[in-house]
């Protein structure tokens, strides 16, 4: 069995007062509905077999948020391995966008489990700009390393 790989993009912007904000998404679906810490993620998705990872990151950003990627150079952040075995590779881009305009992609799953009923849920149920320190507290633990690699002086 081949370990899954996901690719994503971390938008960041300079905040008033010299800080940095990052855009993260809150994971959708019933499991994450009442969770906050550890329930936020880099905007990412699975790479298709043979797909270039940067192309996958661009595609997934648009699919997940329904918004165009901010213009600007994409800066490599490397990769991390999550506790479930999935590897996430990511890039950063400095720019801005309005998360209130996001139109989230969906997925189907049986819910409640064992019911035989398939329901649709948003892959992300919200996206927000978070100050870097707060983002580090809320993001999936393994992805903190990606935030630590952001090319900003006060990271």
How would you describe what is shown here?
This protein is α+β, with helices and mostly antiparallel strands. Helices cover 16% and strands 37% of the residues. Strands 1, 2, 3, 4, 5, 6 and 9 form a seven-stranded mixed beta sheet that branches.
Concise synopsis of the structure shown:
With 155 residues, the chain is an alpha+beta fold.
| Beta strands, count | 9
> How many helical stretches?
3
Which structural class do the helices and strands define?
Answer: alpha+beta
Query: How confident is the prediction overall: mean pLDDT?
Result: 94
**Range of strand content:** 35-45%
Taking all Cα atoms into account, the compactness measure Rg is: 15 Å
Distance between the termini: 37 Å
Secondary-structure element order, as H and E? EEEEHEEEEEHH
- Looking at the structure, what is the overall shape? globular
Helix amount: 10-25%
Unreliable segments of 5+ consecutive residues: none
Main β-sheet description = 7 strands, mixed
């Amino acid at each position: 069995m081949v370990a899954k790989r996901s690719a994503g993009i971390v938008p960041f912007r300079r905040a008033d007062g010299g800080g940095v904000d990052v855009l993260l998404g809150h994971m959708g679906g019933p499991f994450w509905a009442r969770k906050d810490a550890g329930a936020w993620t880099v905007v990412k998705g699975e790479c298709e077999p043979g797909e270039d990872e940067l192309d996958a990151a661009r595609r997934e950003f648009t699919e997940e948020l329904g918004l165009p990627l901010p213009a600007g150079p994409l800066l490599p952040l490397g990769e991390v391995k999550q506790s479930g075995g999935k590897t996430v590779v990511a890039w950063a881009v400095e720019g801005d966008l309005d998360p209130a305009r996001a139109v989230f992609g969906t997925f189907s799953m049986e819910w409640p489990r064992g019911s035989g009923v398939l329901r649709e849920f948003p892959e992300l149920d919200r996206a927000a700009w978070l100050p870097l320190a707060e983002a580090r507290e809320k993001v999936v633990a393994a992805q903190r390393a990606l935030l630590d690699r952001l090319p900003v002086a006060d990271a």
